[in-house]
Amino acid sequence: MTSLIDNMLDEHRQIYGLLDQLRAEGLSSEAGRRTLARVRQLVVAHLAHEDHQLYPAMRRTGATAALATEYASEMERISAELLGFFDGHGQPGGSLDQARAFGRAISQLRQRMTREEIRLYPAYRQHCEPSLA
Question: What is an example of a Pfam family matching this protein (predicted)?
Fold first, then answer.
């Protein structure tokens, strides 16, 4: 049986791979726009897993409740910015402003995923993960 965190880490790996692919393809290409749509779809699914599985479990545990609230609040702001970027930048043509916005959005997403892997997921594993025994 695969744990929630293992699934979420796998989603991170998929997102990282698609971001690398997108960087190589470029936002202004047809292939890049298709990849951007795939990244958006995967990020939305990942956010749903956080909202419906991860944060509720962490909020039910005293040792992780505050951490879950902190990360969920932060993610509300970040996800609004990311989805705005995805929805506004999947159009043909490219510009320097679009490239900068892409760089900021991707940097923010990568930083967030790294923080989840370093702090959030270990806390879940320690305090919330059901025993597989």
Answer: Hemerythrin
